[in-house]
Write a structure and sequence with these properties.
alpha+beta, six-stranded antiparallel beta sheet, 9 helices
Length: 381
């Protein structure tokens, strides 16, 4: 049995009761000193309880669905809603996957079963991926991601064999013939000039394989098909905007004054004209990517944030990262929230946006590709 989440619901009820009594006393207009004293006492108690209620709620102690409870195999009533992705599938027998708990240990309450589509959150060793699942289409694809990076210590390389994850429901993953996912092929894409051809797409990593090459487990997890989507070759390869954001992140994780980087974002599918791979993989093609990076400093000073919104097109090249949206890819977090319809809840409470203020993305040091920066290149913001 899972331990209960702390709640101050009873305090809330007491607040309502106290307020009701206060209103009743005011309406009867009792003027005795005793009644007046009681009124003051109850008012003070009322304010105190409200303040304590707000503080506890702000600290998250009343959260009925901690993030660690989602997709852990245990059906939690407090997580079984659309806001929490139906507990990551834990409450439906056909979508639950054994994890920290064996599926069904707390029974099932499949409220999302009426819909063919649902959201599934998968926690890997090095990152979290959010998947759009479709029971009718019997295939799914990524719509969100999040991970943290510290200094790069190892370089085990990346795997080149891409397989579906047996622990994830099949309707949440791309479907194809064979055990290893084939490349995204279009008849108008030749073997040469791929970066300038609008019909050429790579098996692009959402979370860069090189970011997760520190252990054999994270390296394996990064190579699951759940972390792959069609990426325009000119966008994904050297000189492309997506590849440049990956290199910027790989560089800044090694700055001596950086404690860690938190990276998160999403994928938007809103144009059917480039959905070339329904037949071969069962999924649409991503139209827009967005990425947010939060840089936390060892000194504890205010974190610095950079955000990009990028088109999955061969023409979205690295130079666009140094121009403000809509002429470029660099965007403020405030505007990104509106464009992506995403509250960006992982943002810290206080932060700077130095890159957006300068109209120029974070620079990369020339020696950061091997993860051996010896001295600070940039100060804290």
């Amino acid at each position: 049995m899972r331990a209960p989440v702390p709640t101050c619901f009873s305090d809330f009820l007491r607040v309502i009761f106290a307020w009701k009594q206060i209103c009743t006393m005011k309406q009867t207009n009792v003027q005795s000193s005793v009644t007046h004293d009681n009124f003051v006492v109850k008012l003070v108690l009322f304010i105190g309880v409200v303040l304590s209620f707000d503080v506890v709620t702000a600290q998250g102690a009343t959260d009925t669905c901690p993030a660690t409870w989602i997709a852990d195999g245990y059906c939690d009533p407090g997580c079984n809603d659309a806001l929490h992705s139906w507990d990551g599938g834990d409450c439906c027998e056909d979508t639950c996957v054994d994890a920290a708990y064996d599926c069904g240990v707390n029974g099932f309450d499949c409220k999302s079963i009426s819909s063919d589509k649902y959201v599934y959150v998968k926690q890997y060793a090095g990152y979290t991926i959010t998947l759009q699942c479709d029971k009718k289409a019997k295939a799914g694809y990524a719509i969100g991601y999040a991970y943290n990076l510290t200094r790069d210590r190892e370089d085990l390389g990346s795997k080149r064999r891409y397989e579906n994850d047996a622990t994830v429901p099949s309707e949440c993953q791309q479907q194809f013939r064979g055990n290893s996912m084939p490349s995204y092929k279009h008849p108008r894409c030749g073997q040469s000039g791929r970066q300038s051809n609008p019909f050429c797409f790579d098996r692009g990593h959402i979370v860069m394989a090189n970011h997760l090459d520190g252990t054999s487990q994270t390296r394996r997890d990064a190579s699951y098909v759940t972390n792959l989507v069609p990426q325009a070759s000119g966008f994904n390869q050297n000189g492309g905007a997506w590849k440049e954001t990956e290199d910027i992140i790989e560089c800044h994780r090694d700055y001596p004054n950086v404690e860690r980087l938190e990276i998160f974002g999403g994928l938007i599918y809103d144009n059917v004209d480039n959905d070339y791979f329904w037949g071969s993989h069962g999924i649409p093609t991503v139209d827009v990517y967005y990425k947010v990076v939060v840089k936390y400093f060892k000194s504890g000073s205010t974190p610095d944030v950079i955000a990009w919104i990028m088109k999955n097109e061969h023409t979205d090249r690295s130079h666009r990262l140094d121009a403000l949206y809509p002429n470029g890819d660099l965007v403020s977090t405030k505007r990104l929230k509106r464009l992506a319809n995403d509250p960006l809840e992982r943002l810290p409470g206080i932060f700077t946006e130095s890159a957006y203020a300068a109209g120029d993305s974070w620079d990369r040091a020339s020696d950061c590709s091997r993860g051996n920066l010896a001295s600070p290149h940039f100060g804290e913001m």
